[in-house]
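Re-run requested by the PI after the first attempt was lost when the workstation crashed. Everything re-entered from the original request form. Ligand of interest: NAP.
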Amino acid sequence: MSARLIDGKTISADLRGKVTDAVHRLRRDRGIVPGLAVVLVGHNPASKVYARNKTKAVTEAGLRSFDQYLPEDVSESELLDLITRLNIDENVNGILVQLPLPPQINTDRVIAAINPDKDVDGFHPLNAGRLASGLPGLVPCTPLGCVRLVKTVHPSLAGLEAVVIGRSNIVGKPVAQLLLAENATVTIAHSKTNDLPSVCARADLLIAAMGRPEMVRGGWIKPGATVIDVGINRIVGEDGRAHIVGDVAYAEAKTVAGAITPVPGGVGPMTIACLLLNTLTAASIQNGLPAPKI
Ligand code: NAP
């Protein structure tokens, strides 16, 4: 058996097209152009690539981009001052601070300083609490993208046994909350979980988000299960060249799973598409309009 490929590139292109159309309508009918400020501190090469890709996607969707670059040695108070200015800038509907931040800066304090209504990453404690309480709010982009991918295979998740490996605030916990809200039965596994292969083996839906290259083996997967691989790991292959692999051993897993996301080309492109959607949602709500149903 070979699993159905869950093609994140195509699914995200469709979502980006819908967001672009909605942005166009918002500009035409209301004169509103949603704006996103990506804040990048320092020279982390991976962060720079992410930030550049985000900016390109933002302008292609017709949104306005207000990128902010700060030096590696910026102080926490300077960064907090910038966030205060962005919070009150009416042209800026979304603020995203690219993580990780340098060690002199307290990441939690920075996230807490963002106006929750502009928190398009969904990391502010208020938005995390809203998600946990089943209240509307901005939801982290990668988990949102994961659930949209799952729904291309399972329009209803009611009754499915879901296992999420990883409990970070960025991926594991919010994706588990979203699956619970969709009526899946959810287990969250982590580095202290006993006998992880047996826990995974009961999953109709397996979400791997631990940042461990190809750790989930084919033999861990229930035949026919849907597998979403969030991991992005850079490894040097046998050919001596750098490759990106996920947290799932793809070649093995695709012979057992019913459907699976590739890495790259799975969750990654959905994250950016969901960032555009969150910025549109934030702009709509800040202007007294309902969240777009896309
Ligand atoms: P993180 O903050 O490092 O969290 C990793 C989680 O995995 C932790 O909860 C950890 O458990 C768990 N874990 C680590 N080793 C494990 C093991 N051997 N067995 C079971 N659980 C284990 O990472 P993250 O930010 O959530 O990111 C996870 C992965 O997703 C990374 O590869 C990252 O690059 C990728 N990612 C991709 C996107 C995208 O757009 N595709 C976005 C964000 C992240 P403990 O809590 O017990 O330590």
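Saved to the shared folder this time. The pocket of NAP is lined by residues 142, 165-168, 170-172, 189-193, 196, 209-212, 230-233, 267-268, 271 (CB under 6 Å).
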